[in-house]
Amino acid sequence: MKKVLLFLSFMALVSTSAKAFETSARNAILVDFETGTYLYAKNESDQMPPASMSKLMTVYIIFDKLKAGLLSFDDEFTVSENAWRKGGAASGGSTMFLKIGENVKVDDLLRGIIVQSGNDACIVAAENIAGSEEDFAVLMNETAQKIGLKNSVFANSTGLPDENQLMSAEDLAILARAIIKDFGEYYHIFQEKEFTHNGIKQGNRNPLLYSMSGADGLKTGHTEEAGFCLTGSAVKNGRRLIEVIAGLESNKARSDEAERLMSYGFREFKNYQLFKKGDVVGAVPVWYGKEKSVEMVVPFDVVKTLKKNGAKGYQFKLVYNEPIKAPVKKGAVIGKIEVISPDGDIENINVVAAKDVAKVGIFKRIIENAKYYLKGR
């Protein structure tokens, strides 16, 4: 028998008076790191030239190989003439100022990519990891599929203009979230404000590092076609947001819009813990069980990002079939919670058995059947 129980109401805070946010960015997205909730989105799935923001994929691959033990920070890569010509000072783009034939540590290359946005550093890494930048681009595309990027295609390691190098703001946010999640032990490099190589000191181009408390990464970008762009992240009161903006007309506009969008997210939204891992939400009878019932528990923390200021009600319904047959395995899904928003949207959260319940022997099952038969009559 299916049983539905309306067991609590949650007063979610929803803004009723705040004006909708607007930005001059061509493409933009703001995401809560913990819940993955989109707090703002504008043309977020459109493909666009990502400029140097695509270096985040190059960094992801290097981090991945470091974590897997396939690289170490002390490994040295040799600078080819190709890397020097395409990414060096003569090319006119951002550079680490590497020299032909120089051996450079992976540790320094990472800072050359992240802090200095060096095109030469990216090409050196690509050639030494994959043999050529073209083969490294194949690895970038394979990695993009693995982590769930749907609107990205890579042709180079740098983000230098190429009609086949495209990403979406949404994909950049997914990539940034993956870097922070998967490689937290390396992420601190993104907040370094300067790095010196070959006697040349360069500052981090991320404006949020200088203007916003809690900002700690990730990457800027700029080409004529892409405009001024930024993938950024910041933490306030233990809560992290990730933003991507693109298509701005100036460095100042990028800086201003990045701070405005991030501030909007922290000001207007809040994370609410609806359930804690292990919360008991009910009990279900067990047929043929050595125990008459088993508790239903929430298997993980449930956190939802909602707007602040002004109350509207969320409803929660516990739905399950009873009785369930023994044996019951701890952790087995035995029901669900329907989270019903004020707009009528429904999100399902599975609930599981809190413990094992063994099956009774044949003699007791005969007795149970007899009781059921007599009661039924």
Summarize the structure.
The protein is an alpha+beta fold and 377 residues long.
Silhouette: elongated
- State which percent range the strand residues make up: 25-35%
Class derived from helix and strand content: alpha+beta
| The CATH C-level class name of the largest domain | Alpha Beta
Query: How many distinct domains?
Result: 2
Q: Which strand order does the major sheet show? A: 1-15-17-18-13-12-16
Number of strands: 18
Spans where pLDDT lies below 50 across 5 or more residues: 9-18
- The CATH superfamily of the largest domain appears as DD-peptidase/beta-lactamase superfamily
What is the architecture of the largest domain at the second tier of CATH?
3-Layer(aba) Sandwich
**Fold-level CATH name of the largest domain:** Beta-lactamase
Q: Give the SSE order as H and E letters.
A: EEEHEHEHHHHEEHEEEHEEEEEEEEH
What is the helix content?
25-40%
- Estimated radius of gyration: 27 Å
Largest sheet: 7 strands, mixed
Distance between the termini: 19 Å
Mean pLDDT: 91
What does this structure look like?
Strand 6 (194-197) and strand 7 (200-203) form a beta hairpin. This protein has helices at 55-67, 81-87, 106-114, 119-130, 133-146, 169-182, 208-211, 251-268, 362-376; strands at residues 2-13, 27-32, 38-42, 76-78, 103-105, 194-197, 200-203, 215-223, 227-236, 239-248, 269-275, 280-287, 293-297, 302-307, 311-321, 324-325, 333-340, 346-353. It starts with a strand and ends with a helix. A 7-stranded mixed beta sheet has the order 1-15-17-18-13-12-16, with no helix packed on it. It has 377 residues and is an alpha+beta fold. Helix 3 packs across helix 4 (119-130). The protein folds into 2 domains: 2-12 and 273-376, Peptidoglycan synthesis regulatory factor (PBP3), Domain 2 (Sandwich), CATH 2.60.410.10; 25-248, 3-Layer(aba) Sandwich (Beta-lactamase). 28% of the residues lie in helices and 32% in strands. The protein is elongated, with a radius of gyration of 27 Å.
